[in-house]
Design goal:
heterodimer, A: alpha+beta, 6 helices, 31% helix, 10% strand, B: mainly beta, Rossmann fold, 2 domains, six-stranded mixed β-sheet
Chain lengths: 254, 428
Amino acid sequence: MTGESAFLRGPDRLWPLVLVSVALHAAFIGVAFFVRPPAIVNLEQKPIVAKLVRLGEKRPEQWLPRRDVPPPEAAPRAPDAVPVPVPGPPAPARKTVALPAPKVAQKPAPPRPASATTGGKGSDALSRALAKVRDDDKLASKERWGDPSGLPDGDATDGSEGDRYLGLVTQALQSSYRLPATISEQERLHLQAIVVITIEPDGRVASFRFEKRSGNAAFDQALERAVRESRLPPPPPELRQRYRTVGLGVNFKV
Amino acid sequence: MRKLLVAVALLAPALALAQRQYIDVGSPDFRPLALAVVSFQAGPGAQADAVDVQQTFRDDLALTGIFDLLDPRSFLADASEGTQASSIKFTRWTDVGAEGLVKAAVKREGPLVAGELHLYDVRAGREVLYRVYRETNARLLAHRFADDVLQYYTREQGIFRTRIAAIRKGKGTWDVVLMDVDGKGAETLRRETSIAMLPSWRPDGREVLITSYRSGKPEIWGIKVPEGTPRLVVSLGDLASGGVYSPDGRSIVFTASVDGNSDLYVASAAGGAIRRLTTDPATDTSPTWSPDGRRIAFVSSRSGNPHIYVMNADGSDQRRLTFKGNYNQTPRWSPRGDQIAFTARDERRVFDVFLVSPETGKISRVTQDQGRTNEEPSWAPNGRLLVLVSDRGGRQQLVVANPAGDRQRVVTTDAAGTAAASWGPFSP
């Protein structure tokens, strides 16, 4: 009698509970309407992951893409040989190959715009060279393309509107999202995991758990490390409670 | 039922609050695996071989871009700790950041070079791979070791025993050469005394197609591997060039100009049963097969400028794929099927290598600010690397790069320059 759950008791005892529920709802609605206007948070809105578009001039759409991070200037050098630990004459030094003088490119240079300079042959060449330097400088100054409506600290050349905070969280997680390069291309096609993160008001990750694991230990370990290493921004005041209790789901994909 | 209603009534406010938002995070940064390669042990008289094996092995792994080879000077472990897992102090390897550890020994057995390879998982503290090989030369042994290590970590077949075909220019000669993936071990398959270009492998590695002017006009010839004997495959109209075998080796797609109109044709492997695939009055050229052999990407100037197009292998359903740039050429379909590499001229009038997704048309860039010309990409058979021709050193040389472009290495240093490379198939 005394240890029995309320749900197991007779139906005549359910009415008090229903009344309590109605009272709770009434109180909830009353607080919502009369105490103070609630923060406008549209729970139905599907989060749109925003790239923070950099403030700047928009790159023409018909142009080929340009990398934000250029490839290495020179080819990476092969790692130095390690001497073989056998007594005897020293290992032969690696041959250095003398580089022949550069010659004229095999491919004919693409057509260049006609120069408007006047003067002798030498000054023409000089003018062309200067014009080329100016052209290149002009283009170089526009290496970091953006959008006139972008943000000074944006890091993408284009993007769509979306939730600013989620955009910042995505950016923070992205920066620590590193996987072992040895994961094969075939595995990369299917790797996916969902991690639920609870966030403190100051942005620290309070806890995290896997809602769905990938099945690949190396991938899942890398995600744990990525979440631990990430530095998330503090949530806006109206969302603090939500991210601290309900958390934020992160769907990691390759 | 009533109980359920009550439960829902009680939980409704909580459910509303509990609606969790989800975000997607993709495009990870792939981090190279830190690998410690301990100085290879050498048997009597095998010191030079051991040096060669070790250097080639390290070069191979560095070429992939997926390994970070640790500096041996940082190693803390005792050099004489042996190869038994029980005798290895793995904490000393984790202290220097190693995730994998390689030890090997090389010795001479008559004309053969023999070697044993040990690979250890440092975190697990155990040996994960042990191999013994006997090969005719040190480089081949090193490539075998590298293939095994690559296969262990990626579960994909290694590419270090594949060969790259290229055209090396001399004074009045065009040599069809075959070289290792690191640009070394080059052998001349055939010396041509007329212009030779556009090499392309047969899928079984037994022949290289070239476009040759040996009869005074461009024709498609096949050079048998390794014999070097030539055969005329296709001669058609004013020119026939750029022959490429289908993935099953039964057909060859090529460009031919008949009555002044450049179009794509397909022929049998023997060169017969020629069939026309395109009929547009604009120039259609530079075909490449999808890995399943069902589609062909090519270049057409029908929009006014050369752009990449895709069609079915029978010539139907032709559609434009690239809409950026104004001079896109030399498409090469990845063995994985998900990317097409091509050469394009950008707004600075510089030629660079790009990738385009055949499904979405999205373009990414491989080379940038590395000389005036980076062109003619060709895929490694595993689709993880590209070889391309670059003038970044002042003359045309071959560069091996990963598709992301963040790992690139010049692999040839020919005085006269090397052009037009084609990466060969997996070795049997």
